[in-house]
Design goal:
By secondary structure, this protein is of the alpha+beta class. The chain is 44% helix and 16% strand.
Length: 708
């Protein structure tokens, strides 16, 4: 067990055997390391080059969890290493390893001695000369510690140290990392005295005057240019084309490289990073090399609603086409059900949905209405795309009304603009709808092995649907049933990402708090936002509404069946016609608004009449209705009286004065004359004393009528 975790150059590694024991397939590790996926970083075990180790820090979290659960029993790797050290299971460094560490950390006398031999090579730089000199010093130290040339203990320790040093420091592989090859090298120099150590350790092919230099840089540039092409050439094709180009340039065979070199060059990480965008168009496989902005999932509902519509992969329904009438029967036409949904981004709940035979504005509006009526809320943001329903006057009006409520509306032209609802359609069909006997498989572009039903199975399904007279209504029931199943199913049952979330989308919606930017909305506001609208005249205190050849009567009286109260008298006296908003699915109540300003007046309950005959005569309801009508009449009379009493004179009395008796007229004249009698006497007195003249008689009635 002490070999499960190893610490090399400050990094932790685990053995492949322990990973397979944890339940991870070996093929997953090998293929992942080759393709650079899931953080599989593999290196050779310095103590045994036949084995491989996997770097712990680079591993994906799910594989670490398997190791901790099944192998390490909850103990972290570093704690495991410390525990093994305390128990004495990890061997401390030997004397030879300590001396070898000094060689690489210090430039001692032995290294300088060997440097003089390699400085004679004018074509070697100082860095390579130092590496060669250190290699010679390492061999000298190893040879000095050999007690028995027939044993491999010393060579095994030295080979393990050499492998660790070369992997960690990036020094060129000048010395063998296997104990047998290392032993052979040292026996040749120190035991058999065939040559000096500086003559045995050289850089490969140095001194070979006949060797042709490989044009690696030129060939890599060619390979990179062909790989960075939207035609996505294979490695074999690139190799053949480059070989052909080299022959046209007159290169010799020794200047070219092997086909394996091309495969390795094209598999390098830098090649992938440079070429993936051109090869795959910047999406899909190339996405892991592109930058992105990490976003945390919101934890409050109604922060974002996404709306989208798509055809559902279910057996096409049949309907009678009136344009294809034969003498025997009507032909049956086939069609697919189209689903529109409103999805809450935080809870993944489907708040509203609607199905139709084609994508249109009505289904989108119905899905929105279901979501709003179910929640009583408007979201902070509504996100949608340019579907076939977009751009109609009705939809643009609704969007403007949403904005009037303070809702942020976002129009996106890319599927990545609303990835949640796009992904939901795939999950819904591949996880839930797949259980349906009428499911026909994924889209034609899907390459999954189980994406499509066989041709025989599809034929069987279509025949069964025709025998059962499969209608659009049947498709709606089938799809709606699976939507409800999705809303009630816990995420952990089918999602790896949310394997620890033991709540269904509908439960999450009930648990989450409302986003502070969401808007509360009343029923009459929903009507103003999404219901059908018409303008009608008020006739005999009743609104007469006709919907699809159905006549509905809505009396202008207060009713317990209506949600909002009205002031019937005020409405009758101020409006000859009103704006009526109604729900085609439920005509039991309508909302009424003013025609000029759009102010809300109240709601009216439907009343198409009472039974006045027979045993079922509703005399009590009739009496109650008449009493309410009387209340309206009394309210109108009271309002009229208040308005008429505001006048100072009674115009009818004035206009009718010449038609009354002489006694009544004299009495009225006297009543108007008496308040002015004192002023008239004073006027007579002043006239009589003016310039000594006698007073003239006063025409009292002329003055009276003049003043009146």
């Amino acid at each position: 067990m002490q070999d499960i975790v190893k610490e090399i150059d400050g990094r932790l590694y685990v053995t492949i055997e322990s990973l397979t024991a944890a339940g991870i397939q070996k093929n997953t590790i090998v293929v992942g390391a080759y393709r650079g996926r899931d953080g599989w970083v593999i290196k050779k075990d310095p103590s045994d080059r036949r084995k491989s180790l996997v770097q712990w820090e680079a591993m994906a979290l799910r594989y670490k969890d398997l190791m901790l659960k099944n192998v390490l029993k909850g103990v972290q790797p570093q704690e495991y290493i410390n525990e093994q050290k305390n128990r004495g299971h990890i061997v401390q460094k030997s004397v030879i390893e300590i001396n070898l560490d000094k060689i690489v950390s210090e430039i001692d006398v032995r290294v300088m001695v060997y440097m003089r031999h390699y400085k004679a090579w004018n074509d070697r730089d100082e860095k390579k000369q130092l590496a060669l000199a250190k290699a010679c010093a390492i061999c000298e130290i190893v040879a000095s510690h050999v007690d028995n040339w027939k044993r491999y203990d010393t060579f095994k320790q030295a080979a393990a140290w050499i492998g660790t040093y070369q992997q960690g420091k990036g020094v060129p592989k000048l010395l063998p990392v296997h104990e047998i090859n290392l032993k052979r090298l040292l026996e040749r120099v120190y035991l058999r005295k065939e040559c000096e150590i500086w003559e045995a350790i050289t850089i490969k092919n140095v001194g070979n005057k006949n060797r042709k230099a490989k044009r690696h840089d030129e060939l890599y540039a060619w390979a990179l240019a062909m790989r960075n092409d939207g035609r996505n050439f294979s490695a074999a094709h690139i190799y053949r084309q480059c070989k052909l180009a080299a022959s046209l340039l007159g290169w010799e065979d020794g200047e070219f490289v092997s086909e394996q070199w091309f495969y390795k060059a094209l598999a390098k990480q830098e090649t992938k990073v440079i070429t993936q965008a051109k090869r795959f168009g910047g999406t899909g496989r190339a996405a892991k090399f592109s930058g992105f902005v990490p976003l945390r999932m919101p934890t409050e509902k109604n922060i974002l609603w996404e709306i989208d519509a798509t055809p559902i992969n279910i057996t096409p329904h049949y309907w009678e086409d009136p344009n294809e009438v034969t003498t025997k029967k009507k032909d049956l036409a086939m069609g697919r059900a189209v689903l529109s949904v409103v999805r809450d981004h935080a809870t993944q709940d489907i708040l509203g949905y609607s199905l139709d035979m084609s994508e249109n504005r009505h289904m989108v509006i119905n899905a929105l209405r279901m979501a709003i009526e179910r929640t009583g809320k408007l979201p902070y943001e509504l996100r949608y795309d340019r579907g076939s329903w977009y751009g109609t006057d009705e939809v643009e009006t609704i969007i403007k009304k949403f904005q009037g409520f303070g809702v942020k509306t976002t129009e996106t032209t890319s599927p990545t603009g609303k990835p949640g609802v796009e992904r939901w359609f795939e999950t819904f069909q591949s996880v839930f709808l797949i259980d349906s006997d009428y499911y026909i498989g994924e889209g034609v572009k899907s390459r999954r092995e189980n994406a499509h039903r066989s041709a025989d199975q599809l034929t069987k399904q279509f025949q069964q649907a025709k025998r059962e007279n499969w209608k659009f209504e049947d498709a709606v029931k089938e799809i709606a049933g699976y939507i409800n199943e999705y809303r009630k199913t816990k995420l952990s049952k089918y999602s790896k990402k949310y394997k620890n979330v033991d709540y269904s989308p509908s439960e999450l919606y009930n648990l989450f708090d409302d986003y502070e930017g969401s808007v509360n909305i009343e029923r009459w506001e929903i009507a103003d936002l999404l219901w059908k609208t018409t303008k009608l005249k008020i006739t005999r205190r009743t609104v007469r509404l006709q919907v699809h050849n159905e006549v509905c009567l809505f009396p202008l009286i207060e009713s317990k069946a209506a949600k909002y109260a009205i002031n019937a008298a005020d409405i009758l006296m101020k409006h000859a016609e009103i704006v009526v908003k109604y729900d085609e699915r439920d005509l039991s109540e309508v909302m009424i608004f003013t025609p000029d300003t759009g102010d809300f007046l109240g709601s009216l309950a439907r009343n198409d009449g009472f039974d006045g005959y027979g045993k079922d005569a509703e005399w009590g309801k009739i009496a109650e209705f008449q009493a309410k009508q009387k209340q309206t009449s009394e309210a109108i009379k009271k309002k009229a009286k208040i308005l008429m009493e505001a006048g100072q004179y009674d115009p009818m009395a004035i206009l009718a004065s010449h038609k009354v008796s002489k006694a009544a007229a004299v009495e009225a004249e006297t009543a108007a004359f008496l308040p002015n009698i004192a002023e008239m006497k004073e006027n007579i007195k002043r006239r009589g004393t003016k310039k000594g003249k006698a007073a003239e008689p006063v025409k009292v009635m002329d003055d009276f009528w003049g003043q009146w």
